[in-house]
Amino acid sequence: MSYDARINEIAAIANEAFYDSANTEDYLGVAPHMKHKVLRDLYSELILEVFNAALMYRTPRVLDIRAGEGAASLPFLELGGKVTAIDISRGMLEALQHKCQARGHELEIVCSDVFEALKTMRKERRQFDIIAASSFLHHIPDYLQLMRDTLPLLSEQSLFFSFQDPLRFDSVGKTTKTFSNLTHYTWRVFQGDVLGGIKRHFRRKHGADENNQEDYTEYHYFRNGVDQDAIRSLFDEFGYDCRIISYFSTQSDFWQSVGSMMKLTNTFAFVARSKTVGATASNRNVASRSKSSPV
Ligand SMILES: C[S@@+](CC[C@H](N)C(=O)[O-])C[C@H]1O[C@@H](n2cnc3c(N)ncnc32)[C@H](O)[C@@H]1O
């Protein structure tokens, strides 16, 4: 599916308004990958794996697209990387700057729409060893174009890493789908937002409404989740070894442990490493988790 650039623009404006007004603490309290230990552990493990693979060559230069309040930037800085963080929300970036101040000398902050920032970086011929996208692809209507835009910025020995995106809805089994909906709606009940949830459910049946900010911050509902196989094909084509790591995620603590125990999968992480990574270098250095856990 290809998108009109205008849809990406509307989504960018909606995201900027939403995340600028959002309270960082509120966001951290509901984002499953920040909230649940089992997901934080998986996230930390993958960040460490990606970082160590890039570290074989030099101190990794990391580009965190849609950095938010620093969920990826902070652990990469703590591991010793140099980080460039892009986000459209000034509020989120202020929170990130505050969190990362101890390693501020290795941090570059770019407040911009991600498509614009990548365009400028391509013109400047910037190169990065890791591009990270945490809880990100599902917010962008044309995420495949965005990923294509990142390719020229990846150095010869590089990795792309994404985390916490919903698997393509039609690739999720019926049982998992029913279970995921159930967990989400029971969580909504405890949030006291049943009516809001019902309204959203019916509104979404009619397609995204340009005037509704929420429709454009959560655009994946209108396009079948995020297509993990299309992402894999894209990186395959450009000579990367790809791995999709599927796992279960939901907001509620209780249902998260049940879903994880049952080994259900509705969400994925993605790691692509250029085929040259690990082929020539010896293990120059290996970072280990810093005193404060990566996330
Ligand atoms: C769900 S948060 C993810 C934050 C962080 N990466 C994490 O894992 O928690 C999405 C972030 O994307 C940013 N964002 C949304 N659309 C954007 C765009 N078009 N350009 C740059 N940043 C954008 C928002 O401001 C927000 O901080």
Description:
The protein is an alpha/beta fold and 295 residues long. The chain has one domain: Rossmann fold (3-Layer(aba) Sandwich). Helix content is 45%, strand content 18%. It has 13 helices and seven strands. Strands 3-2-1-4-5-7-6 form a seven-stranded mixed β-sheet, with helices on both faces. It is globular, with a radius of gyration of 19 Å. The relative contact order is 0.18. S-adenosylmethionine binds next to helix 1 and strand 2.
- Chemical compounds bound to the protein: S-adenosylmethionine
User: Within the CATH hierarchy, at the fold level, what is the topology?
Assistant: Rossmann fold
Quickly count the helices.
13
Global outline = globular
Number of domains: 1
Unreliable spans are: 290-295
**What is the CATH architecture term?**
3-Layer(aba) Sandwich
Strand ordering within the main sheet: 3-2-1-4-5-7-6
Helix content: 40-55%
Q: Could you tell me the mean pLDDT?
A: 85
Distance between the termini: 34 Å
The arrangement of helices and strands along the chain is: HHHHEHEHEHEHEHHHHEHE
SS content category: alpha/beta
Evaluate the radius of gyration: 19 Å
CATH class: Alpha Beta
Give the amount of beta strand, in percent.
Answer: 15-25%
Topology:
Elements: H1 5-21, H2 24-30, H3 32-35, H4 37-55, E1 61-65, H5 73-78, E2 82-87, H6 90-99, E3 107-111, H7 114-123, E4 128-134, H8 143-150, E5 154-166, H9 174-191, H10 194-204, H11 213-217, H12 228-237, E6 240-247, H13 253-261, E7 267-274
Parallel strand pairs: 1-2, 1-4, 2-3, 4-5
Antiparallel strand pairs: 5-7, 6-7
The structure holds S-adenosylmethionine.
The site of S-adenosylmethionine has 20 residues, from helix 1 and strand 2.
